[in-house]
Write a structure and sequence with these properties.
The structure is a single chain. By secondary structure, the chain is mainly α. It has one domain. Helices cover 53% and strands 4% of the residues. The protein contains four helices and two strands; from the N terminus they run E-H-H-E-H-H. The chain has a two-stranded antiparallel sheet with strand order 1-2.
Amino acid sequence: MAPDTITLARALVERAYQQMIHAASAFKAAKPVRDELRAALALPPTSTSVVPAELVHDLEGIAVGRTAHVFNGSCPDQVEGEMVRDDECPACRILLRLDAHKRAV
């Protein structure tokens, strides 16, 4: 495994998902991370998804509010939808990297 990737135990992802369910309802920026954890839990237990550690750290930044959406364009929200991205928004750029990673896997 490359030094810049981590493999998370399913139990850890399940705990993080349960915490994100509550956080996402109170904090709009946490919703995409919650949805990504939900997708990870939907994978068969035998499949392994290796996500670069830097991307995990950056996604955590969105979830805890270190990196916020600017909402000056096409940031994901209830109006634009969850899958839109603004390439000038710091949080959306992280989500774009996540989208590219998911397509590559």
